[in-house]
Amino acid sequence: MTTSTATSAPRPQHYHDIDGARSVLMFLSVALHAGTVYAPARPWITANTARHEFFDWLIFGFHLFVTPTFFFVGGFFAVLLLSRRAVGDFLLNRLLRTGVPLVTIAFTLNMIELYLRYVDAGGAENFVGWIGSPNFIEVWASGLWALHLWFLVSLIPMFLLAALVQKFVPQGSVLRSKAVAIPDWLAVVAKSSGAFAVFLVLLAVGNTANYLVAGQMPGTYEPIFPGFQSWYKLVSEFPFFVIGVMAALSPSFLATLVKWRGWMPYAAAIALIIQPYSTPEQGDLFSLFMLFANQLAIWTIVLFILQFFHRYFIDGGPKTAWLADCALSMYLFHHCLVYVYGRWLVGVEWPIWLEFSVLTIGAAATVIIVHEYVVRRFHLARLLFNGKTDIDAIRRKRAEKANQRRYPALSPAE
Question: Where does the Acyltransferase domain start and stop, copy by copy (predicted)?
Fold first, then answer.
């Protein structure tokens, strides 16, 4: 995958804005899943009888933009990695950063959570007895083992596809030149506010068509093979990955996407408030319209988020770097903690808003402590849970900061 160089200035070393958007949304995922404990539409999350419709609005609102943004970022950084690494190095990097944490959490925290769900549903086996039971087999055969990790499961074949394109599509081929020329052209035609609004509509049309085509395949909603996930879930977010790829291939297209537009905050707020969703009760034509409106709302919020972070987080800094480092741990660990803490809160009679706040803050704080004092301090934990091998570098930076605090006169003059 090549990049466009004729239409823009040289790239920065790090995209703090995009990394910051990904990181903040990882933290928002804690509130999203904490909301499921109290949402009437999600009664299967713990046995808590304290429910309020606000949490339905909250979690469905978060669902509009959190995961789609992750897929955009996944496609964007996949291209950047492939532009800097050989295909083999790229695959090894993705195996470490995606595959290793996926397997680690699937066999540890996800199994703990799924066992607790089994017990809460009336299961009588102890943990050892549960392993090999019909429920345990169904968990693995149905793909339920992944829980919130389905995002990583979907990313892996997308990474493989990107690697195959990089490996087998010749440099200088028509396909590669078109892959850059099309987003370069879109960058020009969608630059004005009116044209950008039309572009949003076209993105929504493309997503709607993707859903309709995917739905025609037999077994669309069944696992592609036992233990994996459905074709529907695999391809539903693919357009966001593709646009992320296009943004990385064409800096001018990325600049058009992240350009601040004064009307976008209002459009995103309206989309978040209305939250259009299609339901089985709607007629075919109205359901199709609502599907389109849903995709339009998603793209509006996703692109507003990118514009917001580009406007206010472009410079990065130590806090942004820390946030980015903690983000994967937050994503991996929080789900089980939300269930465990939410399970405990079933037995207390606090106001629902207080319970939700305690659950959200408690789960996030626990992850931060684990990340700081386990994941960032021990080689094996860093590898298994973050897919990194940079503990020595972290220790050197920690020692340098300690020395600067102890001997400030030795710090470099500004």
Answer: 16-369
Residues whose CB is less than 8 angstroms from the CB of residue 192 and which lie 6 or more positions away in sequence, other chains included: none
DSSP H helices, 85-124, are: 87-94, 100-107, 109-120
- C-beta of residue 330 within 8 angstroms of C-beta of residue 364: yes
Q: What DSSP letter does each residue of 114-147 carry, written as one string?
A: HHHHHHHTT----HHHHTTSHHHHHHHHHTGGGG
Q: Which residue has the tokens 């996407």?
A: 257
Whether 389 contacts 382, CB under 8 Å: yes
Residue 293 lies in a domain: yes
What's the predicted TM-score (pTM) here? 0.92
Q: Nearest-CA neighbor of 201 among 284, 286, 274, 267? A: 267
| Cβ neighbours of residue 40 closer than 8 Å, sequence gap 6 or more | 51, 52, 53, 55, 56
pLDDT by residue (tens digit) across 243-259?
999 999 999 999 999 99
Q: Dump pLDDT digits (tens) for 282-303.
A: 888 999 999 999 999 999 999 9
Q: Please give the biggest Cα pair distance in the chain.
A: 73
CB 71 within 8 A of CB 241: yes
Residue 305 counted as domain residue: yes
Number of domains in the chain: 1
Residue 147: name the closest of 279, 337, 380 by CA.
337
